[in-house]
Write a structure and sequence with these properties.
The structure holds 2 protein chains of 2 kinds. Chain A has helices at about 15-25, 50-55, 65-80, 105-110, 115-120, 130-140, 155-170, 185-195, 225-230, 260-275, 290-305, 320, 330-340, and strands at about 1-10, 30-35, 45-50, 90-95, 145-150, 175-180, 215-225, 240-245, 280-285, 315, 345, 370, 375-380, 385-390. Chain A is α/β, with parallel strands linked by helices. Chain A has a single domain (about 1-390), classed as Peroxisomal Thiolase, Chain A, domain 1. In chain A, the strands form 4 sheets. Chain A has a 5-stranded mixed beta sheet with strand order 1-7-6-4-5, with helices on both faces. A 5-stranded mixed beta sheet of chain A has the order 8-14-13-9-10, sandwiched between helices. In chain A, α11 links the parallel β9 and β10 (about 315). In chain A, α3 (about 65-80) runs parallel beside α6, α7 crosses α13 and α10 packs across α11 (about 290-305). By secondary structure, chain B is of the alpha/beta class. Chain B has helices at about 25-40, 50-65, 85-100, 115-125, 140-155, 170-180, 225-235, 255-260, 280-290, and strands spanning about 5-15, 75-80, 130-135, 160-170, 190-200, 210-220, 245-250, 270, 300-305, 310-320. In chain B, α1 packs across α2 (about 50-65) and α2 (about 50-65) packs across α4. Chain B starts with a strand and ends with a strand. Chains A and B meet through α4, α6, β5, α7 and α8 of A and α3, α4, β3, α5 and α6 of B.
């Protein structure tokens, strides 16, 4: 059972969940010129950034990923209303999905390496990928596990999936799970070299889409066993009912053209959750706005949902937030839960010219009212990583 | 009731570092493995030695288990522990970007700046389309990967899982570690250790090189004690049934010994000679344990690992055909 959500994104740098949701549903975008580092040597300049001041990034915590994760986790715990004193630490754990960890800190270190004093002042302890999970486990006193999963852009989805399994198998009562990543030049330069970035804006599933924009953020879900949630009378937002991961096994940086791995993951997640394809009311698509991703995702959805793929509402929020790497899947899982709560499906913005190859109902430009009883949240990433969550709304 | 899993194959590949095989032997084995893959239609181009080690260890694990590849279905998943192994690659990549701007950003090297590339490389080379996860837990990376593979198998989500760890210890990483922790890092090198795990009930008739009877992990002030206690519970064993202990940790061994004794395990303890191999250390210690027990299949070894940031993990294993 999901009982709490915390989201920090470029649309709500301070972590106000309702502000995030209202902005996404209103079709706002956080994309703009990147200021976190100098992009003048690149032909690309667009990204979605957190307002570092509003995030409260200062003092000893210089690593934005740490601060974003701290804020999102704290918000999720508050949202769940769990008094920390009531938790059995040995039955509570954390799973963090991240691609970059404290890479911003690593970049500072490299830039300062010829200046010994400056270099030694860089808080290198904030660099390792596992450091965020360690920090959060220590802060919350969770003692069952502190896991870090790194599966490229599917990291956040896999983190939630692994936490769900841990609870389902009886290995924990409460899990904090989600993802975090901060925008940095290392990632930007790599995507630029691969010519995957847009020069203007992100247009998922559109004929004139030109690529993705990088973003950043953090999102965490509080997962509890049904018994634990019932025992304390928790308000349930939804249920992670199924999860699956599958590999494309074809290419390091390009997806399988027909979405073989994504379709297999979605089919397995549906089976795991006990859903028929036509039980799904909403699909949160990976929808990066790149030529190959959006086309393969359309094919994958047709493969797994059959004719029903043409009737289900599908949207991508990456036009609003950019691509937040390891946080993306977690933010999108939160989006599914908020869609269930309010009966609103967020739009795919900038979808003015539909691509004939992407001929499904992508909820263009305007949010839509709809009852969402079940949803799929899809993620795909470098290395042919695919992960899918099947999410069920709470019983009315 | 315990739920042991069969270790039906394992592979180890090491080059450089303390006590590793000669680079020549590594190169010959790799060349043979790539030839096999090439004959099967998989033309693999590797960029870095950590990829070579991971691929070679996987190849040997599958071969020992009698699995013919490329497989081409969803049956076998991969759970790999990788963390510090990419740090040297990442640092050099970014140094080139700082120096040369966009021209310094190599699209060939960039994918290797994310840890999941190794598991992806394995999935591509052997056409393994099942689960694919990469765990980053420092010296516990390989342990966390084994733990996830066990969860998948015990839940019946896959009939077989490859699990293990891989690392590349660059001079730079070792120097930084030395500055931060004051520890002697040892010489640079790379290592990988990968197991193929199956359930006891799986239908294949092949033998086993060992069994993994229980596994647990824990975080916090009493992490080692909690992990060992939970692991023994998972294996449904009393502390007195453990015949030997193998410690795979770079942390202060006295603290570990005290914690393990605190649970009531009195068996003799040995520090794994592979403890220096970080992400690969735990799987390597498991491999040592099942090798040691090959002629004594009833002997149970407790393998304990710990990481200064993310706690401790423990597994109970035994070697032989079981």
């Amino acid at each position: 059972m999901v009982t709490g959500l915390g989201v920090v994104s470029p649309l709500n740098s301070e972590g106000d969940l309702e502000r995030f949701w209202t902005s996404v549903c209103a079709g706002e975008t956080a994309l703009g010129e990147i200021r976190a580092f100098d992009t003048s040597r690149y032909p690309y300049h667009v990204g979605a950034e957190i307002d570092r001041e509003r995030l409260g990034l200062s003092g000893a915590t210089r690593e934005p990923a740490w601060r974003m994760a701290e804020v999102a986790c704290a918000r999720a715990l508050t949202h769940a209303g769990i008094p920390p004193s009531t938790l059995d630490p040995r039955r509570a754990g954390i799973v963090v999905g991240t691609v970059l960890g404290g890479t911003t800190t690593g970049e500072q270190y490299i830039r300062a390496e010829s200046r010994e004093r400056e270099r030694d002042a860089v808080p290198l302890a904030q660099y390792p990928l596992r450091a965020v999970a360690a920090l959060l486990a220590r802060k919350m006193g969770f003692a069952a596990c502190a896991l870090t999963v790194s599966t490229a852009c599917a990291s956040g989805t896999d983190a939630i999936g692994l936490a769900y399994r841990r609870i389902a198998s009886g290995g924990a009562d409460v899990m904090m799970a989600g993802g975090v990543d901060a925008l940095c030049e290392l990632a930007f330069s790599g995507f630029a070299a691969l010519k995957a970035l847009t020069t203007d804006t992100v247009r998922p599933f559109s004929r004139n889409r030109t690529g993705l924009a990088l973003g950043e953020g953090a999102a965490f879900l509080v997962l509890e066993s049904a018994q634990a949630a019932a025992r304390r009378g928790a308000s349930v937002l939804g249920e992670i009912a199924g999860y699956a991961s599958r590999a494309d096994a074809v290419h390091l940086t390009a997806p399988h053209r027909e979405g073989r791995g994504l379709a297999a993951a979605a089919a397995a997640a549906l089976r795991d959750g006990g859903f028929r394809p036509d039980a799904i009311d909403y699909v949160s698509a990976h929808g990066t706005g790149t030529t190959y991703n959006d086309a393969m995702e359309t094919i994958a959805l047709k493969t797994v949902l059959g004719n029903y793929a043409h009737r289900v509402a599908i949207s991508s929020i990456k036009g609003a937030l950019g691509h937040a790497f390891g946080a993306a899947g977690a933010i999108e899982a939160a989006t599914c839960l908020l869609a269930m709560r309010d009966g609103i499906i967020p739009p795919t913005i900038n979808l003015e010219e539909p691509d004939p190859a992407c001929d499904l109902d992508f909820v263009p430009n305007r949010a839509r009212q709809a009852t969402v009883r079940a949803a799929l949240s899809l993620s795909a990433g470098f290395g042919g990583q695919n992960a899918v969550l099947a999410i069920r709304a709470p019983a009315p | 009731m315990s739920h042991p899993l069969r270790l039906v194959g394992f592979g180890i590949a090491r080059t450089g570092g303390d006590g590793a095989e000669e680079t020549g032997g590594f190169a010959d084995r790799l060349s043979a493995a790539l030839s096999v893959l090439s004959r099967a239609g998989a033309h693999v181009r590797l960029v870095h030695s950590i990829e070579e080690a991971a691929l070679l260890a996987t190849h040997d694990a599958l071969r020992l288990a009698g699995v013919r590849t490329p497989l081409g279905d969803n049956d076998i998943g991969v759970a790999l522990g990788v963390e510090e192994g990419i740090d040297g690659i990442k640092a050099q990549y970014y140094r080139d970007v700082v120096k040369d701007g966009p021209l310094g950003a190599s699209p060939i090297v960039f994918p290797l700046t994310t840890p999941n590339t190794l598991a992806a490389r394995i999935s591509i080379a052997f056409d393994l389309r099942g689960e694919n996860v990469t765990l980053c837990g420092g010296t516990l990376s390989g342990a966390h990967a084994l733990g996830r593979a066990m969860e998948v198998l015990r839940d019946g989500r896959a009939p077989a899982m490859l699990a293990g760890g891989a690392t590349f210890l660059s001079r730079e990483f070792l120097d930084a570690l030395s500055r931060v922790s004051g520890s002697e890092g040892g010489p640079p090198g790379c290592a990988a250790c990968v197991f193929l795990l199956r359930t006891q009930a799986s239908t294949d008739t092949g033998g086993a090189v060992g069994q993994i009877l229980g596994y647990a992990e824990a975080v916090g002030a009493t992490d080692v004690r909690d992990a060992v206690h939970a692991c023994l519970q998972d294996a449904v064993l009393a502390p007195s049934q453990v015949r030997s202990v193998r410690v795979a940790s770079a942390c202060d061994p006295r603290v570990l010994v005290e914690s393990i004794r605190g649970v009531g395990v009195e068996a003799p303890m040995l520090r794994s000679p592979s403890a220096c191999w970080h992400s690969a250390s735990f799987p390597l210690a498991v491999a040592e344990a099942i090798g040691q027990d090959a002629d004594m299949p009833r002997d149970l070894t407790l393998v304990v690992g710990s990481d200064c940031l993310v706690g401790a993990a423990a597994a109970v294993v035994r070697g032989g055909g079981c």
